[in-house]
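How it folds:
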Amino acid sequence: MKFGPVPIDEAEGAVLAHATAAGEKRFRKAHRLSREDIAALKAAGVAEVVAAVLAEDDLGEDAAAARIAAAMSHRNIEVKPAATGRVNLHAGASGVFTVDAGMIDAINAVDPAITIATLPQHAPVEKGQMVATVKIIPFAVAASLVDSVARICAGREIFAVNAYRPVTVGVIQTVLPGIKPSVLDKTLRVTEARLARSGGRLTAERRTPHEVAPVAAAATALARDNDMVVIFGASAMSDFADVVPAAIERAGGTVVRAGMPVDPGNLLVLGTLDGKRVVGAPGCARSPKENGFDWVLDRLVAGLEVTAGDIAGMGVGGLLMEIPTRPQPREPAPQPARSALKVDIVLLAAGRSSRMGGPNKLLALFDGEPLVRRTAGRALGSKAAGTIVVTGHQRERVRSALGGLEVKLADNPDFADGLASSLKAGIAKVAPDAAGAMIVLGDMPGVSSKDLDSLIDAFRRSGGHAVVRASHQGKRGNPVLLPRSLFAAVAQLEGDTGARHLVEAEGLDVIDVEIGQGASIDVDTREALEGAGGVLQD
């Protein structure tokens, strides 16, 4: 293939390197020029084009990418059609991705013109997720190079999605004096959520003293009726002869590995009993945050063998994100005084007021003041360090109503997609040193600055780790204050999913603060707004 300026009289069959105009007609990049195209370009006064001229043994980028993808052997993979020199490959099932790294390296060493990129080894994937992509860099590549890649692919599986199986799991939780039943109950909820993502289910639970004999007896009973047994010790393993590994052996099982080079997750125990897998979960597995337990569990549920050597090889990449609620963090981070923990308010004011039938409820007047300005003023009058107002629908009118207030504005052009888009736009503007963000709805006229301060005070007393939620007579309401540890999860929300989903899914401690009727009064309808003292404006 030759690349560069080509006289227009010699350009038939060449592939354009750049979009090129011929009068009102425009040829896109990578367009192969026909005789008619040449005539149109010459008529427009174009003397030469920058293009690629293919040799007889060259394959166009799409044909080359498609041939390479067709030569690959794989499982549970869907191959998409070639486009712009690329073939994307997607998971045909949810499971764990495995890849022959040697084959990938060999393909990428053939020539820089041919590339393949994949997800990491043992990455958990969802059905439909892209797992690999073949990309041809230039507009064409020699057929001999494609043939070399095809030979590398011959006879071996290059990658696969190992589909999750619907396993049944029995759980043992040991008990010591002082351990709260609420901790054990939360552990069950977190474990059920972990299994649900792969189609598994928790079928039974046994709570025993933290002693070898009762744990061994419970493991034996649960192994008979389940595919896997998971043991949560009330006390972390401190020796390879401690309660959990000793109980596996007392029951007649084998300890495959005690301890793993993944943090959080160091204290995991893996064993077998009557042909079933037994996992001694590390303490961090009581949290929904990713830890070493997830790595082992996902592979087992996908039907993959996990050996002592496999676990020993998990150290590279095994330093995971710290879990803020961990009893003993790796390093004690310098903590600001609780009274100094900063909280920003994210005021959501982007909605369309669809139930109002036309007028924007946020511009309704309460005592002569637009509702959105009244709510923002109360936020500014609280102990919050800053106030961010997310606008979208009728943004100019809403912003005009806020004129003169010291608020930070966040635009949400995707407001019609649902609540999640506004949450993400607001959280993205929260100050880097803020410990949390209070989500305040713009249409709650009964929430005062004092109410907001009550939530902030409760958050500070928790050390900045708990979710704090307004309530009225025992029923949850709004606002909701989210700790910084949830900000990454907010970025993954889609559609009309709000903060309540995060509170329920992430398993953090929740503190309800009674603030009275204001926690449950919003003004979604004309009747509710007028009943609260508002006057709609056209």
Q: What stands out?
A: The radius of gyration is 30 Å. The chain has a mean pLDDT of 90. DSSP finds 16 helices and 31 strands in the chain. The first strand starts at residue 2 and ends at 7.
